[in-house]
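INFO  loader      accepted 1 record
INFO  loader      residues=407
INFO  predictor   begin
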Amino acid sequence: MQAAAMRIMQQQYRHAGGTSIVKRICFMMAGALLAACSTTMPQGTTPDTANVETFDNIGTGSVKVALLLPMSATGNAGKTATALKQAAELALFEFNNPDILLIPKDTQGTAQGAAAAAQQAVAEGAELIVGPLFSHSVAAVGPIARQANIPVIAFSTDSNVAGRGVYLLSFLPQEDVAQIVAFAAGKGKRSFAGLVPETAYGTLVESALRQAAATQRAAVIGVEKYPLDRQAMIEPAKRLAQAAVAQNADAILIPDGPAVLPSLAPLLTLNGLKTSQVKLLGSGQWDDPAVGREPTVVGGWYAAPDPKGWNSFVTRYQATFGAEPPRIATLAYDAVSLAAALARQPQGQRFTEATLTNSSGFNGVDGIFRFTANGLNQRGLAIHEVQSGGGSKVIAAAPKSFAARSF
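INFO  predictor   done
INFO  writer      dumping tokens
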């Protein structure tokens, strides 16, 4: 993109109400300068690099940051990639000419394409890789980036692809569970149960529930798994409801969202569970207006970002690009904003492990977050209560710093 075009877009962002992102993404320490991405797409064969679309670099800075996305992929993957790229552009322009040169690379939605894109990024001198989106792509990029000593900030929700130098900025179910269990325990809930899908996600949530309960010195009286078939849900839900009533459970975690809840949640009350006595808990998948249309879960609690940051981001994005962004778009915005903030530091210090895993963390659109040494992240989430008819209200504000987190 030419410098003149960049100036025009910057003016548009300012007129759209954009604010200096310097205030949004910064170290939170004194004196210092921040649907399912684990879905596996067909991996195909070795990419035909002759047909790979090239994209203009964005910005005029000296610090090169590669942006790896499945931009030529078909369907929702390609549409999501476009939105992520636009969110990255928005971050760069709202930061007001940072010393960043953003280098978009097309992964084609395949592991082979991601590897080729990473190799190109290394050859062109990238100091940081933002993306890829899918777990198999992150797994392919990780070894290449590590060999070149280039950190990766990726968007997959699959914790198996995280590790040294590969950090996941996505919303992780472990964090949802840890924070809602901690909140519930603080409200006197000491006995938990879980009703989770019979999938890898369900296994992860069960493990997170047991770990979170142990951290809070609470009990897990039982966990039932259900197949994703309406008829087959009946028996697991019945067993869980009966066990919860018999053992006086205080809370039941149901992580699935609006696609499953209308079929699943009523089965609990049909089998004797009273939601006036047992609190229903959810995951970030409950952060959808459709959840409140299921009467059984009204009054239930879940952890998710405060909506104020998202609402502001949507307004600015729509004013610029003329469409509402997908929920995942804030990840690209925050990753590029973080890169722009850290680019102020000297080469060799800006993207080091010590810098990226600083315990004070960073502040983004969706609140505070920090990376851990194992490549995962922790967030400061708000606690929401499901409202009748749709939507939710915040009943516990998100912490402003990690020192304020209660666990």
